[in-house]
Amino acid sequence: MSMATFINSAILPSPSRCFSIPRTAPNAKFFKAPSLHCVRKNCGINGLSRTPSPMDNGGPDEEESSPEELSDDEVEPKNNEIWRLFTEAQKNILYLDRQRVKAVEELNKTYREKQLLIDKIKQLEKKYRRKDSMVLGGLVSTEEASNLRRMVTDSKVSLVDVFAGPLEQRDAELLAELRHFSGGRKRKGFHIIHICTEMEPLVSVGSLAPYITGLSRALQRKGHLVEVILPKYASLDLDEVQGLREVEAESYSYFNGQLHGNKIWTGVVYGIGVTFIQPLYFSSFFNRDRVYDYPDDFERFTYFSRASLDYIAKSGKQPDVLHLHNWETAIIGPIFWDIFAKQGLGNTRILLTCQGFDSQGLDEPDKLALCGLDPGRLNRPDRLQDTAKTHLVNILKGGIVYSNKVIVMSSMHSKGRIIHSMSHGLERTLALHKEKLLVAPYGFDNSTWDPSTDKFLPVNFSAENMRGKDACKVALHQRAGISTHASSILVGCIITEVSDFDLEKLRAAVQNATRGGAQFVFLGNGAVPTVNRTLRYLQESLEDSNVKFFTRYDEELSHLVFAGSDIILCHSFHDPLLQVPLKALRYGAAPVLEASADNFRYSADHDHDITRFSQFMRSTFGLMPLSQVLDEIRNNPSTWETKISNAMKEDFSWDSECYETHVSAYAAIKSL
């Protein structure tokens, strides 16, 4: 029953049923109507009830129950006024009820449309992944499968609309649909297969995981076809995998002179097709607690690399680019050119991405034979032989030599500095292959970290309307229990296990800043002992009412720290894991280096081959210590506000410079 219906039944909706006035009897006596009041029944909807009369309980004496006489002049206007109020209340209630029903209908309609779209996308994704099992099962040739994949990449037609049928279709029926669809109009797009060891949110150890997911989603949004191949670790988080299924056809790969069986699993993560390879005979390779740092890592990842290529070749995939990552899959470079380029993959090119050069994969040369390579031919100075330890082969070096392009992920450093100061013994190799070396910055997910839509903020804001940031600053003051001053400058700092602050310098910088009126909020992660010790040291040495410490990490609070702070202290501008500088820029806070081990700003680069992000940070914030930023805010507030507003408008997401660098690399190697 609606609220209007309930109240209508209680208040007697017709004038003929209440307060009837016999107009032909001027001397008639009238009784005062019993008063109505609101009561709440069972803590539910307000109802109306008549105030109990003494007569309801048998009644007292006649004198006490005598009705009150009213004159005609008094009764008529009072009765009309009562009815007018009831009528107006009815109209308002009915209007509100209609609006509520309309809003609920709109909400339900939107929900149904969303679910329909999600269901169609899931159906399409699952159907597309079934092509691999068709090839492995012999239903379709490898050549036709490759053409169908290219059709998916190039088509301008909406695949979701075309393949909206039930998933229960037999493979033969689905294949017929795909063949019928293959005559659609075309557009250009690359087919990229990432062969890697991490992907967020499935398995994440370092910067590789968010990079794989962020770049892949950006590529998909721009019309490219992206797939990812991963080992099937026992520790995988499969909650976000849609349509996970085992490919029924057998899959074998070469290792140590024999063919070994693998289980192949396919699914979809954030719209990206993902394949998992699970060794059967060597089942212990990926059935472990950790991802890395085992004595047999060379064998584990060499097996996975060779199995990935065997799977790609047998399933008929002919990608434009095989995208390799770090030393763990760098061996695919020599395997591909020595063995698989002649097996129908002659048009495929190789791109290697390095998150860094501190881990390179050194091992005995004879182990190259495990995956079918010739140790005698590859253990040479210009190929895989390590420069310093010449009795060992260097897998990352081999990946650099055998790749068509190499991308080094570094938000701040130039190509020259990477080669000469950060190569960990690979300087000669990188210098020799300098022309195929590119530098790309990390991006970040600007849909999750967006102050104009952030659900964690009390008030949203943007570069065009910054009023909400003031409200967020007040909210952060209140949350931290710090006194609010209109002229106060609030500095936020996130402390994690990867932070590399010089604590003595940080303590001194905070003390100097608080003397000038600045306020600080520190957010850490109490679950990490090293972070706990850092925060405890700072808290004990900085006994100041204008400095607040939160030892337990809170997602909502982390968003509020970025939104409410004027400045965010950063341990480095090259921050692929936390992405603190990128989030600070997005939320209108100045990222400032202070007491950090990152001293890039004090060293001159030998060339100008740096990223746009690096150029922006160096020219805008890179050379400003905390004390100078505080002075700028106080002395030139309008100029500073313009600088912050302009910084907020910069696009440093995965879809921007990171995407552009990779696509230019793909295009360059495809033209070779």
From TrEMBL:
InterPro entries per record: Starch_synth_cat_dom
Catalytic activity field: [(1->4)-alpha-D-glucosyl](n) + ADP-alpha-D-glucose = [(1->4)-alpha-D-glucosyl](n+1) + ADP + H(+)
EC identifiers of the protein: 2.4.1.21
Record-level GO BP terms: starch biosynthetic process
Main enzyme class: transferase
Annotated metabolic or biological route of this protein: Glycan biosynthesis; starch biosynthesis
Renumbered residue ranges of the record's region Disordered: 47-75
Chain ranges of the Starch synthase catalytic domain: 191-430
Pfam families named in the record: Glyco_transf_5
GO molecular function: alpha-1,4-glucan glucosyltransferase (ADP-glucose donor) activity
Domain of life: Eukaryota
Entry keyword set: Glycosyltransferase, Starch biosynthesis, Transferase
Residue stretches of biased makeup (Acidic residues): 59-75
PANTHER family linked: PTHR46083, UDP-GLYCOSYLTRANSFERASE SUPERFAMILY PROTEIN (PTHR46083:SF3)
Protein name according to UniProt: starch synthase
Organism: Hibiscus trionum
Species lineage: Eukaryota, Viridiplantae, Streptophyta, Embryophyta, Tracheophyta
